[in-house]
Amino acid sequence: MDSFNLYAKYYDLLYKDKDYDNEVSYIEQLLKPHNLQGNIKILELGCGTGNHAQIFSKKGYEVEGVDLSSQMIEIAKNKNKGDKNLSFFEGDITTYKSSSKTKFDVIISLFHVVSYQDTNQKIQNTFQTVQHHLKEGGLFIFDFWYGPGVLTDPPVVKEKKLEDKTLLVHRTATPVSDVNKNTVNVLFDIIITDKENNKKELIEETHTMRYFFIPELKYMLDENGLDTEAYYHWMTLNKPTKSSWNVVVVAKKR
Ligand SMILES: C[S@@+](CC[C@H](N)C(=O)[O-])C[C@H]1O[C@@H](n2cnc3c(N)ncnc32)[C@H](O)[C@@H]1O
Fold first, then answer.
1. What whole-number percentage of the chain has pLDDT above 90?
2. Under 8 Å between Cβ of 93 and 73
3. CA separation for the pair 10, 72 (Å, rounded)
4. How far is the centre of ligand 1, averaged over its atoms, from the C-alpha of 67 (Å)?
5. CA 20 to 30 Å from 177, out of 149, 151, 154, 221?
6. How far is the CA of 1 from the centre of ligand 1 (A)?
7. Per-residue confidence (pLDDT) for residue 190, from 0 to 100
8. Mutate to test the pocket of ligand 1, among 16, 68, 75 (most ligand atoms within 8 A of CB)
């Protein structure tokens, strides 16, 4: 799955309205009750262009980011040249082995990265990666597409238009559900218009997203030595409801 290579260069423009600062503060809020001490070392699975990592670094955390897309990693590296708190690597989170000599205090995986792991094998391998890299008592925080929300309020075609000085990006996302696999294939059509000469580039890609239910995640986490400590409707401290689409889990390594 290297589909993100195609539109990596437009990723930051497409998500320029995403509130990464607030999301990092939220993750800090989830970490707070666990009283982590000293310099906190984070491994970020599916770090994309490094937007969360950059903010964590400014707050004094050390972050190692890994992503499947070489282009995303290149952008993350270029944006953060010279920042000694940050390192980025191309890699698959289902098989990744860090070269760090010490284990991590926290592992994060944000903006649905876990939902990209669309088979039991991939999710199992991802949780093994987490188990291998976390310190005892370390925390794993990830968000995902929440099954009850997806089934109660099924996905529909969505349009998104964003622009900067030189480019206009128009994305159409068309969902196709497979209720027997608990997945949604999201077909993206992206038209990029160069505003100076009106030249257009068309990108098409499919992202397969799996929605999960709490009992199956608890089971799979537990099988990998991870206890589910809490789960919330994303960006709140409330229990998910059947209209929650995005849920976050805090798990702790035994
Ligand atoms: C929606 S983006 C989120 C990126 C970033 N976390 C953010 O919040 O901007 C999903 C990312 O997950 C990465 N990804 C999906 N499956 C992966 C895997 N098996 N190994 C590494 N990265 C993966 C993609 O390359 C993409 O960068």
1. 91
2. no
3. 10
4. 6
5. 221
6. 10
7. 92
8. 68
